Amino acid sequence: MTTRLSQTSLLPLSFEASASPSELDERWFNAHCNRLTAEFAKLMGWIIAIVTLLFWPTDALMFPDDARMLDFFNFWRAWILGLSVFTVLGMHFLSLLTRHATVAISLIIVAGSGICGFAVARLGDFGEPFYACGYLLSMATIPIVCSIAPRVLVNVAITLAYAIPYVVAHPSFLGTPYAGATFLFHAFAAIASAAVGHSLYFLIRSNFRQQEKLADQAEELARAREKSERLLLNILPQPVARQLKDGAATVADAYDDITVMFIDICGFTALSDQSRPVEIVQMLNNVFSRFDGLVEHRALEKIKTIGDAYMVAGGLPETCEDHPNAIAALALDILDAAQTLRDPNGAPLRVRVGAHVGPVVAGVIGRKKFIYDLWGDTVNTASRMESTGQPGAAQISEALYRRLAPDFLCERRGAITIKGKGEMTTYFLRGRKSAGHVSRATPVAPPPELAALPAETGT
Fold this sequence. Notes:
Elements: H1 2-8, H2 13-18, H3 21-55, H4 59-62, H5 67-93, H6 95-98, H7 101-121, H8 129-139, H9 148-169, H10 179-235, H11 238-245, E1 252-265, H12 268-274, H13 277-297, E2 301-306, E3 309-314, H14 323-338, E4 351-365, E5 371-375, H15 377-387, E6 393-397, H16 398-404, E7 408-418, E8 422-434, E9 437-439, H17 448-451
Parallel strand pairs: 4-6
Antiparallel strand pairs: 1-3, 1-4, 2-3, 4-5, 6-8, 7-8, 8-9
Helix pairs in contact: 3-5, 5-7, 7-8, 7-9, 8-10, 9-10, 13-14
């Protein structure tokens, strides 16, 4: 509610800061009533101005032999037209006036009532216009959107402002036989105006409350939608999530050149048997949260975690040319970060890293607890690079070595037997080449939300 109120620019900051929600609602509703009153006043002014101009030529037809009536209309019609134009222009151009439209329009009508009372008195004994003018002036208060108390006050003020100048300018009217009936009619007109106007006010207030409920529901739905989208983006890459939101029944893509990397915690099975469940979960959360920050920094895509294994890919879902280098840099970052982490027993955490490059198929599987996953020989080979590697080292395939050789220092391990692949020549990634010498990648500072994570995960 505070956001919607601030957008109206109608409430003082001091009031908004100290007011309760109910007071803000009431203040905003009053501002809403002022705007409606201003719009009603403009409409009323246009109607009076147009009607006045349209009926101006009909005076000679209606009162061909009554010079007094013709003089009356010729003189006062210009004042009525000017008052109408003033009302329209005032409500349209004076932004300050719209904040006090109820008071402004009330004062205009009261002032107009005094003018009309004096004008009608100029007709002398011809008192019938008293009925019509009194009724019209009372009905003119209906577009003023306000509660019953100020409305009654306005109607009483209009009645007195009209009757007093009339009686002062034409005192003989009090001696006429229909003076009492005229004032009684005027009072009934004021009561009827107050009743109809309050009904309009009640209708607007009910509509306002309904709009407020709908606005609150819309805000709640927007917050829920935003939350669900954030959760979806935590599960799926943004382009994939967009496809599912657009109604795609199946999401599947083939990529010709992707780098896949696996990270595994060494000795995790034995560690799980020796530690409490809460300690294991806390350790995995801290470790994988640190890895998440490093992956995000390198603009790579975390695919999933399987137990203590962590899977990352580069070059999807949006293709890029330097994904092998980005994966290699991430591997060195993770090896450096692992040196600062501890298991629940306080011992340094050891990880194995393996990576391979090649084609994959990617897509979303499942209808419940769905995941974005990769398939293909590249994934299997990357997993084998990790499982046959050494603790504290990153083992890569020969295909990936050829891509990294210009920028990274790799140590040839030689031919080893890989399950399902036979003998393969593999390499250990040792560091990055820089200006003629070799250095380990500079550890990347974790994001602010991860900076507070403890270096040791044990108790």
